[in-house]
Amino acid sequence: MIVSALLTSVGINTALCVLFFTLYSILRKQPSNYKVYIPRLLAEGASRTTPFNLKLLIPSPDWVAKAWSLTEEQLFSSSGLDALVFMRLITFSLKIFAFAGVIGIFVLLPVNCWGNQLQDIDILDFPGNSLDVFTISNVNSGSNWLWVHFFAVYAVSAFTCFQLHHEYKYIASKRISYFYSSKPQPHQFTVLVHSIPTSLSCSISDSVERFFKELYPSTYLSHVVIRRTNKIQALMSKSKNLYKRIAQLRANRTQQKYKHGGGVLGLFESKDSLIDHYGKKLEDIEEDVRLKQAEASLIAEEARAAFVFFKSRYAAATAFHLQPSVNPTQWITEPAPQPHDVYWPFFSESFMKQWISKLVVIVVCILFTILFLIPVVIVQGLTNLKQLEVLFPFLKSILAVKFVTQVITGYLPSLILQMSLKLVPPVMGFLSSIQGYISHSDIEMSASKKVQWFTVWNVFFATVFSGSVFHQVYIILDLKEITGQLAVAVPAQASFFITYVATTGWTSVSSELFQIIPLIVSLIKTPFTKQESEFEAPSMAYHRDLPRILFFGLLGISYFFLAPLILPFLLVYLCLAYIIYRNQFINVYTAKYETGGRFWPIVHDSMIFSLVLMQLIAVGSFALKKLSPASTWTLPLPVLTLTFNYYCRRRFLPIFTAYSAESLITKDREDENDSAMTEFYRQLLSVYKDPALFPIQHSSSSDSLVSPLLS
Amino acid sequence: MIVSALLTSVGINTALCVLFFTLYSILRKQPSNYKVYIPRLLAEGASRTTPFNLKLLIPSPDWVAKAWSLTEEQLFSSSGLDALVFMRLITFSLKIFAFAGVIGIFVLLPVNCWGNQLQDIDILDFPGNSLDVFTISNVNSGSNWLWVHFFAVYAVSAFTCFQLHHEYKYIASKRISYFYSSKPQPHQFTVLVHSIPTSLSCSISDSVERFFKELYPSTYLSHVVIRRTNKIQALMSKSKNLYKRIAQLRANRTQQKYKHGGGVLGLFESKDSLIDHYGKKLEDIEEDVRLKQAEASLIAEEARAAFVFFKSRYAAATAFHLQPSVNPTQWITEPAPQPHDVYWPFFSESFMKQWISKLVVIVVCILFTILFLIPVVIVQGLTNLKQLEVLFPFLKSILAVKFVTQVITGYLPSLILQMSLKLVPPVMGFLSSIQGYISHSDIEMSASKKVQWFTVWNVFFATVFSGSVFHQVYIILDLKEITGQLAVAVPAQASFFITYVATTGWTSVSSELFQIIPLIVSLIKTPFTKQESEFEAPSMAYHRDLPRILFFGLLGISYFFLAPLILPFLLVYLCLAYIIYRNQFINVYTAKYETGGRFWPIVHDSMIFSLVLMQLIAVGSFALKKLSPASTWTLPLPVLTLTFNYYCRRRFLPIFTAYSAESLITKDREDENDSAMTEFYRQLLSVYKDPALFPIQHSSSSDSLVSPLLS
């Protein structure tokens, strides 16, 4: 790729970013957009209207200042430890790439430009302004200047490991102090038991009671058996939809009445009868739900799972850590999730079905990964103009226009890729949800990992290896040649990934700020729903945003010594992300659950993977550049990095999987003399209740709308 | 290899076996060999002398009948669950290979002979009586007869998995019933804590007391801090050696006195002064030991580890399962080994040193594996006579003799391999002992795994791949070609491995029976040690015998459909092993420790590996034979096998890693009303004592020998 194409792409994206920022600065102040831009503040009770003012039409950057001035303590207290972990990932990446950026731009870039390898080879068709001049490809083979790259690799690896250790330690301490400062929470006293053996003589509930009372007579408190509610759930969602439709019809009628005075009576009547019809249907369904709910309390509807409550955190932890029954496939215990974090549909299916769906999910994941390659290959074709001309000869005249060429090579490829990648997080989230996790947080964590490996495989490896041949599986399976293959293929795609950062990266954060899709949805919906129906502020989709930032981290780490030019673009991206996500945490997202920082181990593992990949590329690159001592001396680096990772796993990971006996007992002792505990125990028994078993309640504000129709 | 070479080899080995059996039947009855052949019975108090009798010189097979009639209950009660597991491995293998043998000999062998692939190819230099006629190589390419092999592979895989499940279940139930029927044992109530943080203000002992009393006030009983005793250990072994030398000198003197009456007085005097000199030295050392032992009780000699005792098994298990401290690298708990199973030298080194030695052990293991290949390659060279003639032209005339040729190709190669393999178990045992395990049983389990993988790598893969080219690492790293490579290389070595079973296998069991090395040692020693010094019955070296049987299992499973001729030899081996090891458990070995059947998961994993390897070879073989549907339909088999293994890991493995809360609490409740528990608790505090801290005691019988010299 030539420099001007890159500049075109950067230009377009800078313009887009500025546009998005300006529009956001205006639109966010319009009361009609409050639901899109400050749903969190609205849910917390902010006023929904503001008197009209000229200022509302002038873009103002005050939100930047507000986001900037947010302290870590404020973020932690308002959005929880998970938001803090997310922001720490951004600052962590900023630190790493600032350090790598200084080395890259001021040391490696001049060294690269100084070489003349490419001029020697392509003396004839060397375009002069190719981006490759700035990459390691331009350093002469066997040149001692490569030792600079060698030391850079060591320095950045060491700095990253140091920072990783620092962050892990910091977040672990935050997690512990969060636990120490937390009030008694239901999930700390609860254990989920599943695979309860059935017996003919007594119900599940009785056998749970008997089993745990026998084992833990002094600490067992009570239990709640989970009911199979998939039918009720289906009915309830049906009734909800019907209710919405009635409300909509009703609203339309009022609107039209208001508009036309009292005319066109026939139309109203038909609408009235429709509302009447739906109303009756709704009544039937609700009756059905009530019947089914009553049935659910019968023994036949008991699932083979239960929440078991204990008198202390320590007792619950013991029940979870020790295998309860002699048969390890029965009475399986898991720590319970927070009550509002429970993924209830999980329990409705039988365990055999869950086991099968787990297998199916694995197969589907693999298929999805394979099929997804097709658009990526097409995208890769677009970056190669000559191929395109051969495939579609009629494009020749259009491709002759310089600007079109630059747009196609510089901008379009990553845009198409980005669009198709948008599909991945929801798909992976869905796949994880049928895989058998018991909580929303587990589902998001699992989806994060899936999305992350999907991206590494389908964006990184597919781009790197399909640029030359479309057989990355074979290449990766050939372990003895892998470093050499990487060293050849990875630098060749440097310009693509630089553009990728400037397009996908920059636009993804600015569209995050601008909330395009919610905005469009809101614009379409508003005319129909005049009434202020109740709404929930959205929660952060970590499985969408976390893997994206991690992937840019991977690109930065693996390309910093190959093509240091990527680093400035990455730093701009991270700065934008820093401000924008802080703003979103203030205004948009609420915390749906609190994992206590359990996302950090995912981040850590991903960074270690990036480091090792970069080091393997370095081994291959130095060998390719015929500086074999450097190649040999780089070999200890992945070993050292993996040893460091092994240490971190032993030192920090246990803190994230379970709390220690010391902290559990300390907290329990604190509560011992607390008189509020009796009340807490009383409440504990009722918090884990399947929402499908609550009586149907439509929002109170609009209830009055329908009631007269139905009565 | 030709059939006559195989027959020569089998002939030699049959003769050797008969010789060993006959000699054993005579020698075992001589009182002078009791120490070699019935040490266990001696240690249990059998009489050491028998009146001379002519019967003693006639070989009798009564021991075979005795070994045959031993029931499983008798074996279990006399030698423990580990011996039972070992014998179950042999009967399990017998079952598998009897089943495979019936299919192999009566179905596959005729099919193989029926083909004429080899005649077609090597019409000119086909020797006619080559063993290859009996292998799959002789089946015609693309022949539908290969479907017979296909179904055989499925049948044997299914039968093996069925048997594996059955055995795992049986041994798991044995383990649980062993636990339920066991008396209170010290290690059930004990936890080993290491990495105790040091503090300036108080001793290790005090901080252990404080920490556990704080955490578990109601169940904590007491503790014993471990002392650094490496210096004392060194001194003690020095004193022991010195003592032995004195005893020897003294014995010689008495003998000579007896022989020569009172003559050659000068010689006696010099000996006397030598004894005197050594005696004084011994006295000095013993004084030193006493001093050091007194010092060991000081705070400065405390190691950062302790045994902590609890009032119940459940409390100890809880302390082990829950991470005790907030910092996961401090106060690390492990279940304690049995008191006589503790590997005390472990505690003497600092934990940093242990960490380094762990890394060193890994490196040494790799180096050992690489260097070991050299003799294996030489051995491989010997099987190829033409190579040998080229290398050593002077051998030509010798190699012309037919018998020499047959000995060299049929017998010598495996003998050399076997001799060098004898070194491996002790080396691996030593390496495991410095790797940081706290008990002899853990060391043996780790060494078993090491020896096993070493054998698979250095005997199986090295033979299979160095037969063609010496680069198995490269071949195995090339994952995409691996099944094809295996399918080419593995059948080519069929004749080598058939001979291997008949030589290494048969001679190894008969030399196990004959106890060659202990016999030789005893023959050399006897003249010098007339006095009956105390001795211990040896214990079974599982890390030597278990991997050997597992390796024969691997050979049997992977070759059964390629070269069914291997199965009769294997069955003979297993029958011999069945009788001989039973005999050895009755007469020779005592149980040093009881792991409760924890060796079985190693057996299970090894069998699964063998199955998957065989299935991959099958995939490659069918592809190579141009019957691709069979190759494709074999592919699900490894997936199914691994799924089965995954199920077994979930269903049975947890039973072998820890006891369930249910069983622990049941056992604790049984003891609650037992009055003997107070006495047990009292004893508990003194059983974990480093032998280096016991006062020096030489065997009482010979103590009188030295005392007059020293006084």
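Residues 186-337+675-711 of chain A form one domain.
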